[in-house]
Please model this.
Amino acid sequence: AVESQIENLGFPGVLKARRHGYDGQGTFIIPDFPTLSKIVNQSRTQFLVEEFVPFTKELAIIAARSVNGEIIIYPAVETRQEEQVCRWVIAPAKITQEQNLEIEAIAHKLLTSLQYVGVCGIELFLTAAGKILINEIAPRTHNSGHFSLDACETSQFELHLRAVCGLPLTNTRLRCASAVMGNLLGYESSHSDYQKQRQQLAVFPKLTVHWYGKTEARPGRKLGHITVLLKC
Model:
């Protein structure tokens, strides 16, 4: 039973739905047994139970492996989540060279072991002791890599096509010293395209607005993102 599993791990704990989890949906931080029982009893979903990791930073890395076995990696980034939804990404992450090398080694080992083809997002925790832990793996282009559209020589989307088509994997380095990507999240239920707000954002220098063209806004729904290039 879930209750016995989480008792072994202690509180707080983490419940993750086995299926249909996306943008934090189906992920719950469990402080105690009453909260655990309420969620489990109200859902027909099967859950994974995980130990809560008291991290100091959330990190991510985008890596790609081609059908020919070639692997290339983007700079590691720091991400900020609120209510289990990514709010912003800073590239590159402010971590040590040793930590960078460890993350790159993790990506190489993971993609090689799985014989993976295409772009993959890997989310990680950095603990107070400096330990790197894998949190989740996204076998696709990933929100944490959207900065690459404007900030890198090659975007993650082009790189994915190159990987699956057997084309050479081209340069992933940053075109500027750093960049910030911020998600544009819905704050109301609406069918507005928010054109006025997008135009107001677009006047800022070195800022690019990417709008996804969704016809319905809901609180917390990703409607687009912005990228700001720094020290170019």
